[in-house]
Amino acid sequence: MSNLSLYLVTFLAYGALAVYFWREQAAGREDALCRGAVCHAVLLPLMLHGYLLYDNLFINGEMNFGLVYSLSLILWVTMLVYWVGRFFYPIASLQTLVLPLAAVGALLPALFPAAHVQPKTTSLVFEAHIVMAVLAYSLFTIAVLHAGLMSLVEKRLHHAMLPRVLQNLPPLLTMETLLFRIISVGFILLTLTLASGIVFSEELFGKPWQFSHKMLFGFLSWGVFGVLLMGHHFYGWRGRIAIRWTVSGFVFLVLAYVGTKFVMEVLLHR
């Protein structure tokens, strides 16, 4: 089977599961998503997606981290975290909302196959730096999805207009607890990513560390999430305050990474 066929199969598998999950939730049969073969059905597109990523992220021993490949990887990790997390939290219904995003993410490299090979990928420090960065971005992607859902549910509850699908989401308190745990782990990984970028700059990028707009937005994001965690710990920040700070931190993170990638690869073709 060609890679193009695998891309289509992966996309269709994610899409079919998204439709099935959506129908089950809309019919009030959320428990069916956690039983039997359905519970593990997500593993099929996840494994196919993972295989395609591995096949494209490593070219002749070097790492290919173009924009679309990075986005695809982030969405794959996001989907994986949701699938594993539903063994520990009642969040099976949240997979319904992530499956369509994962489907699009799986297909992106087939639609925009341009490679962007990174130099010096034989360094373990470089690979560790990349892994930490991807995990941090993935966790903060999950965090902002959580924040958006919490905001939507809270607004709908005030107006007594909660759609059936949203009624099956975990309680707000559960989502909030999970949100801060995700942000905490993401903050640690982002701290390590920024620190390694400074300390090992010459080994990672072949030149001494220099302050840039990418680093500026990265540190702004780090500061926002750091203040949010301190506010939650010492002052009990939650609800709308937590949602606003989460979204703000994520916007800075997007500007630091995706914004830079978009300008360099799409606008400047570099």
What does this structure look like?
The protein is mainly alpha-helical. It folds into 2 domains: 1-110, no CATH class; 119-270, no CATH class. It has 12 helices and 3 strands; from the N terminus they run αααββααβααααααα. The protein has helices at 3-26, 36-40, 43-57, 67-85, 95-111, 124-158, 164-167, 172-199, 201-205, 213-235, 239-256, 258-267, and strands at residues 58-59, 62-64, 117-118. It has a 3-stranded antiparallel sheet. Strand 1 (58-59) and strand 2 (62-64) form a beta hairpin. Helix 1 runs antiparallel to helix 5 (95-111), helix 6 (124-158) runs antiparallel to helix 11 (239-256) and helix 10 packs antiparallel against helix 11. It is flat. The two termini are 32 Å apart.
For the structure shown, list the relevant keywords.
single chain, 270 residues, mainly alpha, three-stranded antiparallel beta sheet, flat
Large-scale geometry: flat
Q: Helicity level, as a percent range?
A: over 70%
> Which radius of gyration do the C-alpha atoms yield?
19 Å
Mean pLDDT, to the nearest integer, reads: 80
Taking the sheet with the most strands, its summary is: 3 strands, antiparallel
Q: Domain count, please report it.
A: 2
Please list the strands of the largest sheet in the order they lie side by side: 1-2-3
Helices and strands: which structural class?
Answer: mainly alpha
Strand content: under 5%
What layout of secondary structure does this protein have?
Layout: H1 3-26, H2 36-40, H3 43-57, E1 58-59, E2 62-64, H4 67-85, H5 95-111, E3 117-118, H6 124-158, H7 164-167, H8 172-199, H9 201-205, H10 213-235, H11 239-256, H12 258-267
Antiparallel strand pairs: 1-2, 2-3
Helix pairs in contact: 1-3, 1-5, 3-4, 4-5, 4-6, 6-8, 6-11, 8-10, 10-11
